[in-house]
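Input record (one chain):
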Amino acid sequence: MNPASHISSYNLFGETAELADVLHVETIRSRSALHDWRLKAHRHARLHQLLFLTNGSGLAEIDGKSQPIPTGSLVNISRGVVHGYDFAPETRGWVVTLTSDLLDHCIQASEGVRAPLEQAAILPLPPELGALAKHLFDEYHRQDFARAQVLRSLAGALIALTARAIFEADSANHQRAGNPLFTRFEEMIERDFRKRRPLTDYARELAISPTHLNRIAHQSAGQAASQLINERMLREARRMLIYTNLTAAEIAYDLGFSDPAHFSRVFSKGTGTPPKLFRKKVSEA
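The corresponding structure, as predicted from the sequence alone:
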């Protein structure tokens, strides 16, 4: 294990140039074959990625956990999620990469679609999604009249059907989708989890009481609102301990802690393991 000082953050597998379009579509082979069918762990700061594996197989490393990708799989990777792939040679399928701007354009906050999409997921590929991904790939590589409009429309349908597939695969989402306040709260956590904001700040921004916010969190996710905030911070801490060589103190400061010892106590309580021991166990696994 050779972690870097920071988690590699790419706009597209191994690239740092801006996307020419609001989306990019390519075959799994086109990039993976250049790297011996292995793509090292990285993340995209402002991109959402969907992988459609139609033939072959692989392993996905998602936030430090290895998961199989069998034939006929859909992989959803939201922005910020650390991921890498190890494909069997000659694996076939498509990779669709969408900008955050395009997602924001396609998704209305009140419709509850964003919450399922924020989950990293590997699930069976619905036939209609596979067909739509192929259609999008074909359209992307043509230069027909109204290409941009067609691509945006197809991408909107792809996003919605992906959210539906994740929603239907995870019964917990049936509760989450019903409350737009909870969706807004999740978005605020993602935006501010490094700021160590107290729960009262979140409640004030939502124009509700902390008690009401806790009630919504329990109804939607089965946890207290403060737990959800803390879990997002812990998830990022685990990522940084696995994928960077930053010290525990440096990670603490990055995550908004003024006292590294306080961070260590919070991390230990949340994971059952102190930060340094967590990193040691991962490196020896």
